[in-house]
Structures are given as C-alpha cells and as structure tokens.
Amino acid sequence: MSPTYPSGRDVLRESVREQRRDVGLGALLASGHQVGEALVPVLIGVVIDRAVTGSDTGALLLWLGVLAVVYVGLALSFRFGAWAGDRSAVRSEHSLRIALVRRVLHPGGGAEDGRLPGALANTATEDAKRVGGVNTAVMYGIASLAGILTCAFVLLRTSVLLGLVVLLGTPVLLWLGHLLSKPLETRSEAEQERAAHASAVAADLVAGLRILKGIGGESAAIDRYRTTSRDSLAATLKAARAQALQSGMVLSLTGGLIALVALVGGRLAAEGSISLGQLVSAVGLALFLVGPLEVLAWVNAELAQGRASAGRVAEVLATPHAVTAGELSLPTEVRGALRLTGVSHGGLREVDLDIAPGELLGVVATDPAHATDLLRCLARRTDPDTGTVELDGVSLRDLDPAEMRTALLVAEHDADLFEGTVRDNVTAAAPEHVDPEPAMTAAGVAQVAQTLPEGEDTAVSERGRSLSGGQRQRVALARALAADRAVLVVHDPTTAVDAVTEAGIATGLREVRKGRTTVLVTTSPALLAVTDRVVLLDGGRVTDTAPHADLIARHETYRAAVLA
C-alpha cells in the first residue's frame, strides 16, 4: 500500500518528537542559561542598592560572589545546552537522510520517477539539514521565552507597568515576526527547488561529460547550466532579501520595545517609584531583551525555511510505490520458468511468451523502446497495463519485489559500477557460497585485470569512470553472473567490446549459465548464435520464434535488426 502523505508540519513534528530527549535537555539547560542571563542585571541592581549606596564592603563581596557563581552556571549551561541542541539536530538530520535513502532504494521504486539524482541528493542533504536544524531552533525558542518570562516577572515585581509592557509587547512582536516570515517561507521553498534543479543539472552534465566532449556539446551544456545557475541565484537572492527584510523589521520592532521599557523605567525612577538599583536593573533587562527577541526572530526564520524543506522531504517520502508487495511467496526451489500472457505496456502489445526452465533465450526488438518496456516488466519496475508475468506459475504482482529479485535479476545495459576494487564490484551481489572466478572468466574480466596496475584489486572510481566502456561492461556482466540468480535477464552486455572478445563472452556466458534460465535482450549476432532460440519482437508483438540461423534465413526484418 502507498504511504500516507505526510505534510511538512508532520515531518517537523516527527523530527522533534524523535529527538525530544535531547531537545528537552537542551531546552532545560538553555533556559537555565537565559534565566541566569536575566538575573545578572537584577543582581547588579541589588549590589547597587545594598552595597554601593550604603558603602557596605561585606555585602559587596557577598553579592559579587553570587555573581561569580551565576557566571559559572551560565558558562556550563550554555556549553552543555548547545551540545544537546547540536546533537539533536545532527541526529534528526541523519534519521531523515536514512529515511530518504531507504525510500529511494525501496524495492517498490517510484521515488526516483520524475526526479534527477542531483535533486534527490539535494533533498537528502540540504533539506534534511534544514529540517534537522528545527530541533535546535525549538530548543533556543523555548529558552528565549523562558528568559523573556523571567524578565517580565522581575519587572512586574519592580513595577506592574514595566512588567505589562514586556508581557503585552512580546506576543505582539512574535505575531508580527510570524507574519513577516511568510514571504521568507515561500521564497525559501522556491530557492531550494531551484538549487536542487541546479545540482541535478550539474550532476547530469558531469555524468555525460565524455559524451558532450565527443559531440562538441560543451558550449550548449555550459549555456544550459549558466541559465539554471542564474535562476537558482535569483531565487536565492529573493530569499535573502526576504530574510533581510524580516530580520530588519523584527530588529526595529525589538528596538522599539526596548526603548519603551527604558522610557517607562526612567520616568518611574524620576518619580521615585523605583530605586536607582531597580532603574539599572530595568535598563539592563531591557538591553537583555535584545538577545531573546533576536533569537525568536531567528527561530521564526528557521521554522519558515524548515517548513519549506520539510515539504520537499515529505514529497519524496510520500511518493507512491511504482509496484506493491503481494502476499504470495516463491517456491523453495525456483525452477526458472517464465511466462508472459497478454502483456501490454508502453509499446508492447499482447505479448505471449513461454520460457522453459534452463533455456537460453534471445530476444530481438526492432524498436529499442520495446526492449526497455519488456525489461521494466520483467524487473518489476512497473506492472503491465494488462496481462501477467509469471515465475514458476506465480504472478510477479503477487510477490514482494525484494523477494522476487532474489530469484530473477535484470541486468540493464546502463548499469553503473561503484567505488571500490574490481573484485568488490563483481562480488557485490554474489552469495557467500558462490565462487566469482567462473563469472569473471566468462565475462572477460580476467583479461581486464591483466591490463590494470593492481589486477582485480585495482580501485574503481565513482561509476567506474576510471575504466573504459568495454571494461565497465565486462565487470557489470561478471557482477550479474556472479549473483547466481535462477533467472538472469541481460540487456546488450557487449556493445562496447570488440568482436573477438564478444565471441569469447558469448561462449563463456552459455557455459556459466548452463541449466539456468537466461534471457539475452540484444541484437548481437555473436550472442544470439549461442542461444537455444530467439524471439522476434516487431511492432511490440511476438512475430516469430526460432533458432538464430533460421530467423536470419527467413526474416528480412530480423536481418535488418541484427546485421545492420
């Protein structure tokens, strides 16, 4: 079943809830720090009234000692409060990143549809970081409110009028700050969208750098990225202007509130309603209010940006799965019988096909798009619009995609390699009991290893870019063979190797897969020649099936597809 769609606010609440212990501890310590900060001007006022005015040295030393203890408490509470807040933010960011990666890698798929890899990476990094930062913002927000309430309480004890100025002015200030954060939230969302798109375009261009250089498309690529980058810059500047406006307005309003407190306190002192020490305390508390009120303005901005990022995170997490898990299980021993009945999807039209256990079948599609549609259905990246695909008599719709892929592996043409050694890549999906050497020999990786500085232990860079195209294909094919699945579907595994190497791979592939079902979706004559039979897909339909040599002899369409 598809997940319930979480709102951005739900993501924020869950982020804080998961780290409530650290947030609570941080808020408690930070609140203690703020209360201590608020008490400092109060204690200074007490020192003035009880020690300085009366020239009492003993009282002066006593209250200075109290101040020293308060400052020690301030230092410790700030240090450990900040530690707890940062810890909660980092943990929340990590849990969100893990949740996003799990969703993207879920066997049911769907999260990557319509999104470039760079955009997903941006969501898992920048957006997750902003949402995690909400924990810190909540902690400091609670602490700032504690400081303001302490300030108001002290001022109420000093003068009801002073206390009311703070108690009534602060909610108005917070409400105005919330209103001012709305444009920032909207522009932050647009900023993140444009930044994610720019990252995605950059990643896309880097991945295809060799191709771009080969066709002389560098200028067009640079122009495309420049346009995208300018759009991202414009969105960032709009968000920055909105944040500057919000911060400036809140700072002005905060200054007005502080000035009002100082003015009222000064008039009360002039009238003799409060003492000199109380006036100093009132002015000190008014100045102290700058800190908490600025923090609350920052909290408003962080929450606005966090809500925008949370919406993007929620959108990925809530993407419906492309396929859902069924309730049936595969037989204990998978024979490898595949049956397609009336399968229609994309360009495929009513495809009927029986593949016997242990058969080595070739599939030739006159339209590459139809080959892709067939692979998507066999890999269960999608379910057919109509018809069924069965493995040993069980419909793939009724299986969990993860369980299905332990028996049926589709190795696509554009499979990427990973950072690590050549051998690490080959054994990435291999069961522990399987010796990878036969697969490496069959795919020609042994020959590749001989040309590399450290043989099979040679490091492979990201996506295998340190290897040539033919070397990458052979390592990817060896990885698929070493996975030792009951059914293996391979798509064009030798397009970048020479004819002699291809012939050797064809022979080795047949040998290493003997007795297990194998489907070669390809137009390579060398590979098709070693198959038991070949199915011709023309116009999205099965038009004929026979050994490779027979189809060459009797089908002009087939000859055009495999000999062109």
UniProtKB/TrEMBL annotation:
This is ABC transporter ATP-binding protein/permease. SUPFAM superfamilies: ABC transporter transmembrane region (SSF90123), P-loop containing nucleoside triphosphate hydrolases (SSF52540). The keyword Lipid metabolism does not apply. Residues 332-564 form the ABC transporter domain. Residues 25-305 form the ABC transmembrane type-1 domain. The lineage of its organism: Bacteria, Bacillati, Actinomycetota, Actinomycetes, Kitasatosporales. PROSITE patterns: ABC_TM1F, ABC_TRANSPORTER_1, ABC_TRANSPORTER_2. The chain crosses the membrane at residues 60-82, 137-155, 161-180, 248-270, 276-299. It is a multi-pass membrane protein. It is found in: Cell membrane. Keywords: ATP-binding, Membrane, Nucleotide-binding, Transmembrane, Transmembrane helix. GO terms for molecular function: ATP binding. InterPro entries: ABC1_TM_dom, ABC1_TM_sf, ABC_transporter-like_ATP-bd, ABC_transporter-like_CS, P-loop_NTPase, Type_1_exporter.
